[in-house]
Automatic annotation (TrEMBL):
Binding positions (Zn(2+)): C54, D56, H110, C113
Cofactor remark: Binds 1 zinc ion per subunit.
Official protein name in the record: Carbonic anhydrase
Species annotation: Terfezia boudieri ATCC MYA-4762
SMART domains cross-referenced by the UniProt entry: Pro_CA
Length: 220
């Protein structure tokens, strides 16, 4: 794939035609390399991974994991947040666990995240403030630690990590995720470096409030 920005300098229909031409070339290359891939995908999908990531254009999950179409089930939003009551993320998680039977759930944040940077500031942004509040809640909980970090970039990186930890904890507090973990599903936290292209595993500390969210099966 070309990285030449001039490829995308067209406007209107020329832009879409360029994209479609690139799509056809990509499909042809993949069909040549793996003739059975697209026919198999037309029948069903069997991803092993549920990826919960940021909408940022620099964090393309399938590409950075070097995987093929059909290998990752994806939910993305600004700053990879899993707020209580968000029907979109809850529906994706349920479908991935109960219907697709994924074996791994990955929550991935990334350095230089615009949502996290916004949460560190105090500028009014409009409608998105309602969403950014979820990250500001994480910031408020860890204010003492974050205030000891003088470098703004390092402070942002640390809040990225703390946000991933918070979202992993939110995930593990869900009843269907708890059930999935008991049958072997693994939950992971990753942080991706947009400046390096490398993803690193994040150590997830024990949730101090975990016991309050344990859901026990009702005896039959």
């Amino acid at each position: 794939m070309s990285n030449d920005p001039s490829v995308f300098c067209f406007s209107g229909s020329e832009y879409i035609e360029t994209l479609l031409a690139r799509n056809r070339a990509w499909a042809q290359r993949l069909s040549t390399d793996r003739p059975g891939l697209f026919p198999a995908l037309a029948e069903s999908q069997h991803p092993q991974i549920l990826w919960i990531g940021c909408s940022d254009s620099r964090v393309p999950e399938t590409s950075l994991l070097d995987l093929l179409p059909g290998e990752v089930f994806v939910h993305r939003n600004i700053a990879n947040v899993l707020p209580n009551g968000d029907l979109s993320s809850l529906s994706v998680i349920q479908y991935a666990i109960e219907k697709l039977e994924v074996r791994h759930i990955i929550v991935c944040g990334h350095h230089n995240c615009g949502g996290v940077l916004a949460a560190l500031g105090d500028k009014k942004l409009g409608l998105i403030d309602n969403w950014i509040k979820n990250i500001r809640d994480v910031r408020a909980k860890h204010k003492a630690e974050l205030d000891t970090i003088d470098n703004p970039q390092e402070q942002c990186s640390r809040l990225v990590e703390l946000n991933v930890i918070a979202q992993v904890h939110n995930l593990k507090r869900m009843a269907n995720v708890q059930k999935a973990i008991k049958r072997g599903v693994q939950v992971h936290g990753l942080v991706y470096g947009v400046g390096t292209g490398r993803a690193e595993i994040l150590e997830i500390p024990r949730d101090p409030d975990a016991e309050s969210y344990v859901i026990k099966a009702t005896p039959e």
